[in-house]
């Protein structure tokens, strides 16, 4: 390691395709001597007292469990920077965002997810008080991040138009996988490689449907730039 590696907390959702993104990023970061990583896996699942509380909806208990997983994972860690993927585990971690230079990473904004809910068995909250409160919470969370990394210009446009984020704070970095990891790709030297369009990506309209070489390394650079 370098004499003064950047002590960075990587808070990573362990849901669906985000697990693959976590594995790719970890493969790159763990080999970077300039970074001293602390990995926090957020599953939103547990088997404790919280999950046994009566009449507490699963969505609420899961959110609370995720919050506690982040706090426990970062407890007493000396941090120079933070990266959250996605923004969901960063919600209500506002004290951490305020005192530690932070990067948020996401593939879709909450508003876009609502618009595409039919593809994910997701029912949007509509336009009532609950929806307004959630939008305020997300807007505040985005506002506290020093940098935001997104997978496509489609997501960047939503952050600017729907959440008031300044365009210069948002960096478009398509995701990548490690070549030779069992997915399609010609290179076998461990480089993140380019992906082709998939039906899953197409279901997100203009969402990220391809990846760029070296994007995981660029995420590391985005984290380093916060310090």
**What is the name of the CATH architecture?**
3-Layer(aba) Sandwich
Count of individual domains = 1
Mean pLDDT: 79
Residues in helices, as a percent range: 25-40%
Shape field: globular
DSSP E strands, number: 8
The succession of helices and strands, N to C, reads EHEHHEHEHHEHEEEHH
* The CATH homology group name: Glycogen Phosphorylase B
The biggest beta sheet reads: 6 strands, parallel
Which blocks of ≥5 consecutive residues have pLDDT under 50?
183-192, 194-215
| Spatial extent as radius of gyration | 18 Å
Top CATH class: Alpha Beta
First-residue to last-residue Cα separation: 18 Å
How do the strands line up in the largest sheet? 2-1-3-4-5-6
Give the amount of beta strand, in percent: 15-25%
Structural class based on helices, strands and sheet pairing: alpha/beta
At CATH level 3, the topology is Rossmann fold
Count of individual helical segments: 9
């Amino acid at each position: 390691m370098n004499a003064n590696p950047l002590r960075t907390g990587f808070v990573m959702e362990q849901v669906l395709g985000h697990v693959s993104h976590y594995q790719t990023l970890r493969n790159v970061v763990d080999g970077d001597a300039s970074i001293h990583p602390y990995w926090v896996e957020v599953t939103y699942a547990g088997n404790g007292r919280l999950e046994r509380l009566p009449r507490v909806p699963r969505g609420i208990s899961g959110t609370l469990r995720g919050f506690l997983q982040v706090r426990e994972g970062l407890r007493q860690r000396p941090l120079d920077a933070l990266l959250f993927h996605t923004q969901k585990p960063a919600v209500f971690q506002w004290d951490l965002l305020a005192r530690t230079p932070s990067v948020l990473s996401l593939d879709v904004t909450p508003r876009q997810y609502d618009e595409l809910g039919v593809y994910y068995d997701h029912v949007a909250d509509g336009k009532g008080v609950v929806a307004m409160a959630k939008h305020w919470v997300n807007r505040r969370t985005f506002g506290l991040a020093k940098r935001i990394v997104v997978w496509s210009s489609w997501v960047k446009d939503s952050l600017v138009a729907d959440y008031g984020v300044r365009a210069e704070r948002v960096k478009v970095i398509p995701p990548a996988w490690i070549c030779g990891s069992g997915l399609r790709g010609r290179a076998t030297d461990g480089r993140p490689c380019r992906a082709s369009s998939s039906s899953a990506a197409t279901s997100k309209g203009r969402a990220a449907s391809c990846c760029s070489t070296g994007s995981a390394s660029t995420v590391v650079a985005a984290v380093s730039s916060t310090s």
